[in-house]
Design a protein that fits this description.
Layout: E1 4-10, H1 14-25, E2 33-39, H2 45-50, E3 56-61, H3 66-76, E4 81-84, E5 90-91, H4 95-105, E6 111-119, E7 125-128, H5 134-143, E8 149-151, H6 153-162, E9 171-173, H7 174-179, H8 191-201, E10 206-217, H9 223-226, H10 228-240, H11 251-274, H12 278-291, H13 295-313
Helix pairs in contact: 6-11, 10-11, 11-12, 11-13, 12-13
Length: 314
């Protein structure tokens, strides 16, 4: 019996929290426990939870951010495996079942992942994540229609650089999560990839169930989506805060990390060009070339520089 503790952090999500919790309660393979961590909500969240009864473990903490909430949930969890869900998203009915079946056959797995569906607030489908990423397409091409895709350390490079690692579809042993120190505190963007990079660095065997296991609802009105440039800055800062640890990571993880940093910086550079902040765009991309001079990083720098020269002539 694989015992899942499902952790749901929430902050002023009274409108969607019930939907998220119900999606866990309606699983074809029941969760061992559902833990909701209220990160200092000021809305009707306590009232929503009060109506759910004692089946939900409800913990309220002073506002400290989503990483602190998830880490708090993992500390009090009593299941051997952890799964996470944000309060404005939901699981598909077989989310836990498909992972539990694989884990029962191979309990030595370090983690499992799955596909997810991106949706508009009204539930209209946008896309799935595996088919939209380079690493995902490569795995689908290699394994075809297999219902399970095994992952080895060689695959971690692509998952970091251009992958589909998502908080809603990760399942991992609680002991491993705690040993890694959980999610980084004080980070609002990129905290999940920060954790996944460290997880991959400490893992030897993972897997993917290439089926939609969760729905991720995109809300254009959110503060972070209203300011994409700020979001990119925060994402870059979070991922690059790992730089001191990277030399100790396995080679494939190091390569994936450096490629991800390159892509983040390049995207940030293009975004700054669109804002007319031309010199800053070059400044943001230049350090990647200086740290890792290569034909690829030289092309990135040249591409941003051309944008600077074109804008200057205009």
């Amino acid at each position: 019996m694989v015992r899942f503790s499902v952790i749901i952090p929430t902050f002023n999500n009274a409108d969607t929290l019930l939907r998220a919790v119900r999606s866990v309660q309606m699983q074809s393979y029941p969760a061992y426990e559902i833990i909701v961590i209220d990160d200092g909500s000021s809305d009707e969240t306590p009232d929503v939870l009060a109506g759910l009864g004692s089946a939900i473990l409800f913990i309220r903490q002073p506002n400290a951010g989503v990483s602190a909430a998830r880490n708090n949930g993992a500390e009090v969890a009593t299941g051997e495996w952890l799964a996470f869900l944000d309060a404005d998203d939901e699981y598909e009915p077989d989310r836990l079942k498909l992972h539990a079946e694989w884990i029962s056959e191979e309990p030595e797995l370090d983690f499992l992942l799955g596909d997810q569906l991106l949706c508009r607030p009204d539930g209209a489908a946008i896309s799935t994540t595996i088919s939209a990423t380079g690493a995902g397409r490569a795995l689908l091409e290699k394994f075809g229609t297999q219902s399970r895709i095994p992952l080895s350390p060689a695959d971690f490079q692509g998952l970091i650089a251009d992958g589909f690692t998502e908080i809603r579809t990760i399942s991992l042993p609680r002991k491993r999560f705690l040993a890694l120190g959980g999610f980084p505190l004080g980070r609002k963007i990129g905290e999940d990839l920060h954790f996944f990079i460290r997880l991959f660095a400490a893992s030897v065997k993972g897997g993917v169930v290439p089926k939609v296991l969760a729905k991720y609802f995109i809300y254009p009105s959110s503060a972070l989506r209203k300011n994409p440039l700020m979001t990119m800055h925060m994402f870059a800062e979070t991922i690059e805060s790992l730089s001191a640890l990277v030399p100790y990571f396995p080679n494939a993880v190091q390569k994936g990390y450096h490629e991800k940093c390159r892509l983040i910086r390049l995207s940030l550079g293009y975004a700054l060009l669109r804002e007319g902040r031309r010199l800053e765009a070059v400044v943001r991309v230049l350090p990647v070339f200086l740290r890792h001079p290569s034909l690829k990083t030289l092309r990135d720098l040249a591409s941003i520089s051309r944008g600077l020269r074109t804008s200057a002539r205009t």
